[in-house]
Fold this sequence. Notes:
It comes from Ferrimicrobium acidiphilum. This is MBL fold metallo-hydrolase. This protein is of the alpha/beta class. The protein is built from nine helices and 14 strands. The chain has a single domain (about 1-250), classed as Metallo-beta-lactamase, Chain A (4-Layer Sandwich). Strands 2-3-4-5-6-7-8-9 form an eight-stranded mixed beta sheet, covered by helices on one side. Strands 1-10-11-12-13-14 form a six-stranded mixed beta sheet, with helices on one face. Helix 8 (about 290-300) packs across helix 9 (about 315-325).
Amino acid sequence: MSLSDGSQQRAPAMGHDRVSPLGQEPEHRTVSAMIHVEEVGDGIFAFIQRDGSWYLNNAGIIPERKLSYFVDSAATVNRTKVIIEEARRLGVGDRVGMIATHHHGDHTNGNATIDPTFIVAHASVPAEMAQGFAVPPPGLFNDVDWGEIVVRQPDVVFERELDLQIGERLVRVLHFGRPAHTLGDAVVYFPQDHVLFAGDLAFNGGTPFALMGSVQGWLDTLVALRALEVTVVVPGHGDPCGMDVFDGIERYLRFVLELAGNALREGVSPLEAAVNTDLGDFAQWHDSERIVGNLHRAMAELSGASPGSPINIQTAFVDMLKYNGGPLRCFA
Length: 332
């Protein structure tokens, strides 16, 4: 299946490497979140939100004369408006398409604010969006000004792969056939440019999160990701990097599986196992409380649950709050 806009000429870029503050952070926040727009390929721009922790995701902007594209949006209305402002500076017009890498609110809450002509996503995303939450329940995170979030579902869905013609370049949207971070993880691959928007299949400096997907499925997906010819990876969270980002993710996921196996043999809960575990080098990654949610998923899988099958998400988040000693930090 393919979509083509017939465009032949890329709009001229108006800036290659810019850093823009997103207002004054409240005093209780310890990290000053910044916006960084970087050209990661010829006319391919990454919208990076530092520090990449909860709900500070990355997005993509591909300006074209007839039909530009976004890869994902942002968690809040205000942050999505900054994406739109940066896109305008790069020459993006009114007619845009969007590719959603998965259903989570940090990547989709701003869809209606951008209001694209159409949104492309994996076939599982509509149901995942309908069953999940756009704005987290009170008490889960510290206070965030989400804005008025209107859920905008995808218009075009695909199963395994979808080829798009964006200007003169072929862009491949790929799903690897198994749950990983979620059920519907899609990557956006620019084979001519060797650039990959990996969505949340890649965290750079942050703890991977498999609660709503599959630990083993993610490990299997890494094999397929490494088969792509890629020089620049734009992770879902964290700065652009190389393919070696997947090495750290693999080590972490194998660590989770080993810990889950030990916990099952010892008859302890995911929370108990996490509390009594030395995270080692992984403790340097932000959002380390995700170890608890990952153990909920891994222990379910090792107990016979099929990858991606429903588990008690609410219980897992309650345990994460206990591990964290209160609401999870969020600078969105």
